[in-house]
Write a structure and sequence with these properties.
Structural class: alpha/beta
Helix content: 40-55%
Strand content: 5-15%
Number of helices: 7
Strand order of the largest sheet: 4-3-5
């Protein structure tokens, strides 16, 4: 038995209002359509769901049993629709963001504060990790978006460039005479330099 959901919707409103006419108005259909839908349900179950009275219709014992279940389903569907609307409007839900400690601290925090002020119902979850780890989290569905360092070449990801960072070298007093000097790469490499490993993206 696999009745159309629309039949149960008609049954629900007929039972709730106690009137085929009111059910038709609530669903924006004709009264004969309501009668036909209820007849289809009754034939599928092999029982009578309503009996007529002076005020309209009332549930039979079998109809009351069915209504107890359909009413719960209607409530759950209504709650689901409200929940989906809330998610669409960013009234509730959660946002999982991945990135490094430095990017969170020096770039993302002001944006997170602004987002929270505008959408206090959204729970924010920060997942700390390097760029490779963040990319893995994205692919595994553990986060919704990641803030990483470029370059990123991966056909599975949608990458949007946000801003550029300008790196600079820092030296001690021993190299103070180079402060006002413009150094070429070749000249720079003549001095001891501390850098990240080749596989690192500065994280």
């Amino acid at each position: 038995m696999n009745n159309n959901f629309e039949l149960y919707k008609v049954f629900y409103w007929a039972a709730k209002t106690g009137s085929l006419t009111q059910a038709a108005k609530a669903l924006y259909i004709t009264q004969p359509s309501v009668s036909h839908a209820i007849k289809q349900l009754e034939e599928s179950f092999g029982v009578t769901l309503f009996y007529r009275n002076s005020k309209g219709v009332a549930l039979t014992q079998e109809g009351a049993v069915l209504y107890s279940y359909i009413e719960q389903s209607h409530i759950l569907i209504t709650l689901a629709e409200e929940k989906m609307a809330a998610l669409k409007n960013l009234d509730s839900g959660e946002l999982r963001i991945g990135g490094s400690d430095s990017l969170f601290k020096h770039y993302l925090l002001p944006y997170l504060e602004h987002f929270h002020e505008n959408h206090p119902g959204i729970k924010l979850h920060l997942n700390h990790g390097t760029t490779p780890e963040t990319i893995t989290f994205l692919k595994e569905g553990k986060i919704d978006l990641g803030v990483v360092r470029m370059p990123i070449v991966d056909s599975q990801l949608e990458v949007r460039e946000s801003f550029q960072l300008q790196d600079c070298f820092v030296a001690g007093a021993r190299y103070a005479e180079l402060k006002e000097t413009v150094l070429s790469l070749e000249m720079l490499l003549q001095h001891p330099i501390i850098l990240f490993s080749r596989n690192s993206r500065a994280e």
